[in-house]
Every structure is written in C-alpha cells, then in structure tokens.
Amino acid sequence: MLTIKKVPTVVSNYQENSEKGFEGCGRNCLGKCCLPVSKLPLYAFKEDNSNLIGNSVEKSSEEQPQICFLHNLLLGQWEDRMSRGLFRYDVTACDKKIIPGRYGFIAQLNKGRHLKKRPTEFRVDKVLQDFDETKFNFTKVGQEEVLFRFEKSNDHRRRFFPTAPPVTADSDSSSVVAINVSPIEYGHVLLIPQVLNCLPQKIDHGSFLLALHFAIEAADPFFRVGYNSLGAFATINHLHFQAYYLAASFPVEKAPTRRIMTMKGREDKGVIISQLLNYPVRGLVFEGGNTIQDLSDSVASSCIFLQNNNIPFNCYAEKQARGEAIQELLDTQVNPAVWEISGHIVLKRQEDFDDASETCAWRILAEVSLSNKRFNEVKAHILEAAGFQTETEEKNRDHEGESIHDQPSPKAVAHLPQDCMVFH
Amino acid sequence: MALLLHSVLITLTTGARPPLFADACSSFPLLLLGKSHWTDRDLRWLSLSLVPLIEVDFLSLCLDSKILTKIPHGIGANWQSKVDTEEDFQVSTISMESQLGLIERSFSTRYSPWVREALEELPHNFTISDPTISGHPIVFASPGFLKLSGFPRDQVIGNNGRIFQGPKTNRKTVMEIREAIREERAVQVALWNYRKDGTPFWMLFQLSPVFSKEDGRVIHFIGVQVPILRKKRLTDDGDAAAWNEIVCGSCRREVCSDSLVDLGRVLALDTDTNCRGVEAEEPCEASLINSSLNISLGRIKQSFVLIDPHLPNMPIVYASDAFLKLTGYDRHEVLGCNWRFLSGAGTDSSVLNQIQESIQVEQACTVCFLNYRKDKSTFWNLLHMSPVRNATGKIAYFVGVQMEEKCKSQDRHGLSPEIWQLSAVGAVKVAVRSLSMGASCSNSSDRFNTL
C-alpha cells in the first residue's frame, strides 16, 4: 500500500555544501557580512489596517496595476532563475494529474525532488528547537537564489525599489523571498522573515503577519503561502514559509466546513472559525477579521499554543477571489506536509503515480490525522488561545445551514497529528 | 464558457435541498430480491440504480440476481427488448407521468423556486441533465440552446443528449463524454451535433458536474454548447457589455468585470475559425485552445503569442490584445498564421533560422529582429521564446513575448524589461500547466460545487 514518507528536500543549492565549512564572504550570501550591502530589489508592502470584509470590490484604476505587480515580479524573477539553471530540475516537465474522484486530489510524479542520501539529522519529536548555527540555515544562501526583499513600507504606500538602499546593520527587518531549488510547482518560493535574526522555525505574531501580507499582495487565490512546523515536515530550523502557484482548487478547499459557533471574546475581532468536514484530516478554517492584524493574531495565537504544547502542525493562507476574507488553513499533521494535506501529493515512483486513486490518498491522510476526540480537546484549547469561547457542539449541528458561504470557500484547516514519527 | 458555468452553477447552488433518491443505488438488489410484488416505487428505484451500470449487460445482471423471475409479467419483456436495441436503459415501463414527475422534481426539490427563471434569462446555450434519473435525461434547456438545436422544448426535456448526435459524430468523443460522466468530472470536447432539420453543426461542448451540498453526490450535469461557425466575426465591446449586464443580473454574486470581458473575448474567439487553408468540412480540433485557457491567458497584459509546434506550419493559436495593438493586426488575421508572418524584406533570415532551431531542440531563446506591422511600419522586436509544457510534462506550445526595443512609453510598472517579459512567460507556463490537468474547466466550477 502506498504510504507517504516525507524525505527532506534540498531547498537551496548551498545546502549540500554546508558540510564543507563556510568560506567567508566573497560568496554574496545572506549573512551579516553580505546582506547589508546587497543590492537586492525591495518590494515594500502597505500595511493595511482597514476593514477587510467591509471593503467594496471596486478597485480604482490606479490600484489595478499594482495588484498584478507582485505576481509579475515573482513570476518574472522565477523564470529568470530558471533560465539561469538554478533549479535542480524543470518542474514543468513533471507529470501531474487530477485523480478522478469527488475531491480531485492532485498527484505529481517528481523523481528529482527527494534526496538520495541521508538527510541532516535533528530531532523530529520536538516542535520547538533552538537555532543551530552549525546546521544549514538561510544566511548561507547565495544572493542569486533570492528574488527580492519583502518588507513593510516606511511611508504607508506600496513601493518597489529595483535596487534597494542597503540594509543597515542593525535593522532586523530585512525579510527575503528566495527560490526553492526543488520546486513542487512553478513559482515555488521561500519567504524568510528577518533572515539576519536567525529565528528558529517557530511562528510568532510578527512573522505570521508578514506571511499573510505576502498572500495578500499576491492577490491570487491560487497562490498559497504555507508553513510546516518542525515535526511536520519542516526540515530546516530557520524560520521560513513556502509559497507557490497552482491554478486549481486544492481538495481541502472543496471540503465543506461548519462554522464553529462562538461567543465573542472580550473584544470581537470579527474572525470566523470553522471546522473542516468530510475530509480525511481534521482541520480548522480561519477567515474574516476586522483587520488583517486581527486575523493574523488569531491564527498566530493558535499556532503558538500548538507549538508550546509540542503539537506539530501545518497551515497555509490564501487570498480569496473576491478580495475580501483571507483564508487560512491550519493543519496539524506529522507525516504529510502542508501541501500533501491540502491535496497536492508528490510521488517519486511511476507506479505510484499511475495507480494513484482518491481512496488511496484519503487513506494516507486519514491515517495520520488526529482522532476526533483528541481533535476536539485541542480545538477547544486553540479557540481559547485565539480569544474565543465555544458553545457546545450540539448547537452547531442544528445551525449548519447558517454557515456562511457567501464568499468563495475560505479554507484554513488545522489537522492534528498523532504521535510524531521519525522518518528517513 | 467557464464563466457561464460559474453563473449557472451559482444559480443552481443557492438553496439546495436534499435529492430525492440519494440512497436508491445502494439498496438495490437487496431490497427487491426479497419481494414477491413490486410497487411503482420499487420500479423507480430499480431504474435509478441502473444508471451507474450503464455499460453493463442488463440482462446478465438480472439473471445473476435472479430478479427476472420476480418481475411482474410484461415488464421483463419490455426490458429485454430495450437491451437489444439501445445501449442505455430507458425503462419505459415507468409511466410517462412519473418520468416527467421526476424531471420536475429534479429541480424543485433541490433548488429554490426562482432558479428556473434565472436560468431562462441567461443568453447562452446550455442544458442541465440529471444523472440520478434513468436515462440521464435533460431536465432543463436554455432558450439559446433550443434555438440552436431547432428542437421544441418538449422534444428535448426528458431525452438524453444523444438525440443530437448523428452519423458524423465521433464515437470516441462520445465515449470520452460517457467516461467523464461516470467519473463525475468535467470534460471539454469538440464534436458534431445535428439540428432538428438534420443539418450538422460543429461545436465545442463542455460538461461539468454539480455536487450536492449535503452529501457531495453528483446531482446534475451542465452542458454548454458553443457552435463554431465558418464565418470570421469579431465581437465588439458592445456585445461584451450586454453579456455583462445579463450574466450579472442572474447571479447573486458579483462577478469581476474583467472576467466578463474575457467571456466576451472567448465567445468571439470560438466563433472564429482558427484554421487557415483547411477544408471547411473538417474543422481542426488541434488548433483550438480551450476556453478556460483563453480566459487565463487573457489576463496577461504583455504582448505575446502561443505557437503550436506540433502542427505542420506551426501556427499561432493565441494572440494577446497587447500583441494586436503592437502589430496593428486583428485577431482573425493572426490566428492560424505561421509565426514568421511579422518578418519582411529587412528581416535578418539567420535570426529566423535561430528561432526555428530553438523550437526544434525545445530550448528557449532571445533574439532581436526587424518586424513589420500591418501598416508596413517597422519596429525592432526583442523577442523571448520559451517552450511551455502542459500537465503531463510534454511541450504543448511555444510562447513568444514581444517587446519593442527602446519603447519608453511602455508602462512596465517599474520592472525591468527583462523581468516584465519573463513574467509573461511565467504566467503562461502557470496557466497552461495548471489548466491542462484532467478536467480543464474544473478549476473555475469546482469552487462552487460544494456550496
């Protein structure tokens, strides 16, 4: 029977060199030596605290070109790196298909993605681990793998600087978008918040907000920004998010949801939380929010709770087609990572690809999902951490019809894992 | 076309109620074997359960489960004769009234009452069929479709879509459609259909499933028909605006105005022939780009063309608006032309060879050469060509992105010219790769299916 075993992948061309020791800097890396004097382009986003839900969909003609901007920048830069041969393989040459069935799981045959040798070891049973300088981290990445810097604008306006002013040595706000040299799809990038600060793989409010802004700026429901915690397939203990384009609905996005009725906490932040139904993995959906910050904080608080309780998880965010609510997918899962859970499955062998079926995919994912009972326990805690109180489940059932589906279905799914499994 | 599906699906999926016969299939034959006397309801259940078994030899199935011995006299005889003459099963023993009753209930039990009205208002050609009723009949036909096919409504409702097929209809294509229905996924094909007066017409047909909100089962299929005419016609913006109004009116959701202009463009495109110099009797399937891809490509602002390298003269199969603006040509003058058509007397032929070679070895290339507009004026074209693969990883097209050198008036929003060009390449690659996976129109319609 087919099982998914996640093998760590190489995300940077500099990763495998790390054993050789570091040559000082003439290497144009992302460390304190080189980044401050780099000429990387900078995309400065506007921190938007306006009411997301209430915003009308009209876009002024002035705004319109801006919305495509990050899209063009990212795609153009990515294609440029492709033509320079920086990727380990051509991901567009990988066979992929939608598995027939209700959910349409997406299977990809990718023989080049997985490492052949034994990966770098670190404990996979602890979600929070300290940053280890001796292991590979993103300050060692060469600047050619970086597409642009992505930071908050200083003057509340969206700006692009083709050749950015240098980062000052004491400024810790430099975040970058780099390519993933083993892409799962076209446009697969890594968002590394505050790269110089060498943060371990752990969510905090600030970094999550940055990731959410990234999803918003891309303004495309098919551009998803995801996160794997340690123990849930993140293999580099340096804070990073992943993102790529797939112009199709993920199976998890097609799953129905049921809104969790909540009594408002001390302040009503306007965030709506729903539970995923009819999907092999247990999850939660976060959407809405009076401001982006509110939504981001709710999710970040939930993630922090999970981290502190050593529960591995995955999540992703995407901006909905209507330009209103942001959906975030919060999965907690051990074995498959955020993209597998969401329904995009990468397979190594031809026969696995040929035989892929929805039943198969379902079974794989269901195996690693948390039991209902455990999920409910954790869910209650998550909601508390996010500032909500729940009413009892029974009431929910009757009011199923009330679940709002006016907007295209937002998906943020929290899949809860079983005990951590060590993998090779 | 994908957008039309949006609007129909939106209309249908607001206010769904549970389908009537959801459990029929699972309780056959256990339910019926034990009975000595069959009621009308049993017969209905029996027929419904046969729908998924559409290719199975009905006779052998019955014999295996020993049902034939239990069938009331006369009914078995009818069924037997049906097996000999038809591939699918129309259980005519169910009285006409109950069949019509089922069809009526197909809508009324699932959707809110104003759905029919709203659907009637949509200007396009489409049908809605119900796979849970025996024979998979059409339960709704838009006025546009009735006009197109020439059939009166009472000859369409209750019948299967095969009544529009005829001698020229490609059997293999029909099998493709059948398979898609069985696998409950969308499909898009081109095939011959026949009007009531017997005249055939070539059309692009897109079929899409509608899933129930309650249990995720397929409750309807929507079929959209776009006839492909010989005449080359461009739709002006006035028509696009009119469609804008109509589609918006019947949809509860607002639709982004950009996509409606796309729809106008797509429908205009579908009415053009893409083949130059091909016999009128044989429309070229290969050079059609499906409508979803057209819509996605339409969002890309740069000047570019798509070339099909598999066809003998490597024709242009898609041209962006910006390309038409740059070169001064109309779309119908460009589609189907060989990619060299912009070159002229002053063009360096070695560059043309270079491009040809790159296509042959499936490599990207960047060149700069002299091009001629429609008005014979020249410009230096900085062209970037790249292979574009579809979801199977094989090369589907080549994309060529043009940039007029030294063009300062071009608004690139601060991006360098190279990045601006490459981003068009990237956007095309994402579009072609994603949309060619399995069901081509599932991307847009799926988002609404589980509402």
Automatic annotation (TrEMBL), chain A:
Enzyme class: transferase
InterPro entries in the record: GDPGP, GDPGP1_C, GDPGP1_N
Cellular component GO terms, alphabetical: cytoplasm
Disordered: region residues: 389-411
GO molecular function: GDP-D-glucose phosphorylase activity; guanyl-nucleotide exchange factor activity; hydrolase activity; nucleotide binding
Pfam families (alphabetical): GDPGP1_C, GDPGP1_N
Keywords, comma-separated and alphabetical: Cytoplasm, Guanine-nucleotide releasing factor, Hydrolase, Nucleotide-binding, Nucleotidyltransferase, Transferase
Spans traversing the lipid bilayer: none
Superkingdom to which the source organism belongs: Eukaryota
GO biological process: glucose metabolic process
Compartments it resides in: Cytoplasm
The family this protein is said to belong to: Belongs to the GDPGP1 family.
This protein's name: GDP-D-glucose phosphorylase 1
Organism of this sequence: Salix udensis
Organism phylogeny: Eukaryota, Viridiplantae, Streptophyta, Embryophyta, Tracheophyta
Automatic annotation (TrEMBL), chain B:
Gene Ontology biological process: response to blue light
One example GO MF annotation: photoreceptor activity
Domain PAC: 185-240
Stored InterPro entries: PAC, PAS, PAS-assoc_C, PAS-like_dom_sf
SMART domains (alphabetical): PAC
GO terms for cellular component: nucleus
Signal peptide bounds: 1-15
Keywords: Chromophore, Flavoprotein, FMN, Photoreceptor protein, Receptor, Sensory transduction, Signal
Origin superkingdom: Eukaryota
PROSITE patterns reported for this sequence: PAC, PAS
Domain PAS: 115-184, 316-336
Pfam families the UniProt entry points to: PAS_9
Entries under NCBIfam families matching the protein: sensory_box
PANTHER family for the chain: PROTEIN TWIN LOV 1
Protein name (record): LOV domain-containing protein
Upper taxonomic lineage: Eukaryota, Viridiplantae, Streptophyta, Embryophyta, Tracheophyta
